[in-house]
Amino acid sequence: MSEEPVVEPETGPPAPVLETREPVPEPVATRAAFEDAVARLAAGTGPVAIDAERASGYRYSARAYLVQLRRAGAGTVLVDPIGLGGMAALGEALQDAEWVLHAASQDLPCLAEEGMHPGTLFDTELAGRLLGMPRVGLQAMVLDLLGYHLEKGYSAADWSTRPLPEPWLRYAALDVEVLVELRDALEQRLADAGKLEWAREEFAALATPRAPLVRAEPWRRTSGLHRVRKRRQLAVVRELWTTRDEVARDRDIAPGRVLPDAAIVEAALASPRSVEELVALPLFGGRGTRRRAGQWAGAVRRALALDEDALPSAGAPLDGPPPARAWADRDPAAADRLTFARTAMGAIAAEHSMPVENLLTPDTVRRLAWDPPVPLTVEAVAEFARAHGAREWQVGLTAAALTDALSRADALGRVPED
Question: Considering the entire predicted model, what is its pTM?
């Protein structure tokens, strides 16, 4: 009599983690509760996991509306910073601890706004990039390295909502529950790959305070601006963008919820001369838009009345070389250098299994190819890279290869034609 075949149980994806290890704590919202939380976290041990929730797409400000922390011996703490008047005391209490964040560059500005500045940090997303991991979102990395399936259902929620719903708080608490465990797994992989010192240089650069980026003409980032060709129409975009920005800042509402970019571009192309003509445009028919129709029409009229010499230039002012697509016509030798440099960078990135943009910023490579140092030496290229923010590990990997690539491109340009 033959035996029945053994049927292996089917294994599917791991079930989502929906519950925290401890009860979800109430957000800390008073100075007394905050002082208790500071003492508890300061008495904890090891790295501290930190995350922050903003209200991007809902509010003008990029401030934190919830800060989540977790540390061994202290558990999870959720802080509502809105009425606290700053969190500098917490930052000072944790100054000697390593801060573990995911995509730290997104959260550090809003934490700094609350008075929190890391001494040292570990960025799990950046670690994943240096390791060449194909997916570096928190949910994907936790699944790939730890086998947990985190839910991400509230990442785009309006975190300025008060009171915050309990499911949102549970989601926020779960984000920091696994960060230190993820950090440990990544540190081991970095060490095994010989990249741990590279990562430490990157993390130190992230932790270094820096002035916020101020764009010279932020209105030029209006979506759809490429459709606007005439200077007078660009002036309409600029005036509408500036008026919208003032309204959005005063009301602390995301600019796109005050007036969509598409409406700004539509008004610029049509250049209506009255409120009636403006509200006749399809994107200005909504109730909220019509309520401020006088403001929008006034902005358009101001732009249309400008003298010619007050109009914006047709193109954005350049801070650096022109777009690479124009190099072949404007400077063929520079175009050759860029091609050779990009090829060299691609080879190094492939050898070390990481995205090429983490090896050296594309902007640095473009600037180097457009205006290389003279004489062209490894030392000069290394100093050029350092001057543009490259870390020593990046300089060590790329300076010689870039010097060789640029030299070969210049030699190619000197070969006489047959």
Answer: 0.90
